[in-house]
Design a protein that fits this description.
Helices cover 68% and strands 3% of the residues. α3 runs antiparallel to α4. The radius of gyration is 17 Å and the shape is elongated.
Amino acid sequence: MTGFWLLVAFVGAQRLTELIIAKKNERWMREQGGYERGAEHYKWIVMLHVMFFVSLATEVAVFGARPAFWWPLPFVVFLCAQFLRVSVLVAMGRYWNTKIMILPGAEVVAKGPFRYIRHPNYVTVTLEFLSLPLMFQAYYTALLFSALNALVLVGIRIPEEEKALREATDYGESTGQSRWFPRPRR
C-alpha cells in the first residue's frame, strides 16, 4: 500500500501548493480592485475535499480496499487530469484561484483548455474524484464524493461563479450562452 500513500502525499502536496498560489493570486487581485464572491459556500467545498481524502484513506486503510487489476486505466485518467490542472494554472496565471475572485472589467481567459470548455478546473476535480478511488477499488468514496461534487458544482459553485463573472467582466459576451462549451472568439 506504499503506492497509495505516496499518491495521497503527492495530491496533498499539490493541494497545499495550490493554496499557496491561490493566496498569492488573491492578494494581487485585491490590490487591483478584485473581490471575492461565494465566500459563504467556500468552506463547504474545502470540507468536501478534505472529507474526500478522509473517506478514501478510510476505505483503503480500514476497510481494505486494494488496487484493482485494472488500476492503470484510472491512473491514466488521473494523469490526464493532472495535465489539465497544470494547463488551467498556466492559462489563468494570476487570475487562477480556489475562491471565486472577480476583477471588474477583466477580460475572461479564453486560451489553453478554456478554448474548448468553460470550467476545465472543475473537470479536473471531477476526474480526480473518480479516478483516485477507482484505482484502489474504493467504490463508496468514488460514488459518494462524485455525487456530492456534482451537486456542489452544478447546484452552487458554477452558477455563482458565472453570475459574478457576468456582472463584472466580459464573460457573457465572450463565451456565449452554453454553460459548458464557449463559442469561438472572432
